[in-house]
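Before going further, learn to read the protein records used in this course. The integers have meaning only within a learned vocabulary of local backbone shapes. To see the layout at work, look at the sequence and tokens printed below.
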Amino acid sequence: MNKIYLYTVILTYLSIIHAANTDQSKTPKHIKLVRSPKNAHNYQGFLVGAYNHFRGDHKAALHHFQHCLSYSPSAYAHSGYFHLLQTLGKPQEIIAHYENNHELHDKLYHDVAAQITIAQAYMATGNTDKAESMFVRLGDLHPENEQIAYFATMALLKNNQLEKADKFIATCLKTPTLKPKHFLFHFLQSKIHFQKQNLEGALDSIEKSLALSPKFPQALLFKAMVMEQRNDIGNAIKGYEGFVHATKSDVSVEKHIIQLLFNKGEYNKAIKRLEKLNGKTPDYFYDLGLMHFHNKNYNKALSLVEQTLSSEPTLMNAILLKIKVLAALEKTSDLAPFAQKLLIQQPNNVQILQTYLLLKNMGVSTRTLIEVGCAALKVQKTARLIATVADLCVEAKEVGLAEKMYGSIIKHSKNAQVRARARYQTCYALFAANQEEALEKRLLEVLTDQVIDPAVYNLAAYYFATHDKQLEQALSYVDKALAQRPDYPPYLDTKAYVLVKMGKKDDGLALLRDAQKKSPQDRIIAARILSLEGGLWKS
């Protein structure tokens, strides 16, 4: 509750109690609303509402104020009602009451406490223009009022009126009566410099604020932020530590210090600070495990990540960390059973499936991965898992097993596009294994299906062009692929290949250059262009 308003209520209430005590026979145990002349009734209703507000009985206060307001009371009652609504956290009701009673605009014009409350309500509801207007007017009327000066500055800042705010602060810093609060205005000035990306100015102003109030927590925190933005991480950490020390506890800032230490590679310091937090949550154990991993204490990291996964087995970051730790410990034999467990638990999790495929980069053989996948499929048979294991079979050129798995998808899937994709994969498995006779037969079969994956058209076009067969038909096939994916570089590359085979080198080269614009990083297209330009690519 605003101090000015509170003092008014207390003094007025004491005068009422004193008046009541002059007649001991009529001294009430507590104040009650009574039937009385209008002015007295309004005055008494205001006092009872204000008194209940003061003693914390907000329900009773609201009842008495609303009852009092129904009698068209004086401005004091409206002011008291505004302060109660502010306490209740109802800024929209403050604005509605103020705007629905136009006579209050003049009645409360010089009521500083009420005007501050109304302006704060506008700011809380996002009407910063209105809040700014009210606060700046109040600042002009009462330049010595530190509360108004602060809120006026904040309104200007929230409204992004940085130049106005800067000038207003300069005026405040020249006002002798505001000298005790100059540290606050230097702090706000620092924020203005910071928003203008003037880090040196921000640092200078915040230093002035701290010179006047060395333990001002917000200034300590903001100075650390400025230091961090200046990339002075060492002093930023010291600044954040000073803030934590001044406030005794701030977990979010403590975590930020840990993150900065981690980023600097000061893992031991980061670990010690994190251990003090003693979170005992999956995230806590994961963060601690990650730090020990980077500190090359792999056994400790493994123990901590196991604690994480014991309570949250699907936490992807922890899963990836365990894989990294096992690889670092050269426990390749443990990776396969871990992957199998994951596949059984989450057979449709795309990230898990991708991680499973990437294990071959960590020393697990493709054959072992196929065995792991097949074992998981005995427990959990899903289209995604089947397709993933089948892709590995294609890579290992185990065509028979790949065809069997893709055949299972074709047989059981109800999605026509999924079945079409699986048919393409059976063709590609034969292509990868160089089984050309079987490939041509399969392609001709698949090309008669009702739903055809565009990759089938592309593969057929490439196959026939490679063998200088049915080139016009090959061109027709690749055009059908491009009809579904017009800008797809591999399809454009295939069409260029077919055109060159047909003797249309210039057309092929022009198409490849167009494809390169769409995909400048594609090395195959770049190599083809060089071959054509150098005359090395013969049809």
In short: The longest helix spans residues 3-21. Residues 9-37 have pLDDT under 50 and may be disordered. The two ends are 88 Å apart (CA to CA). DSSP finds 31 helices and no strands in the chain.
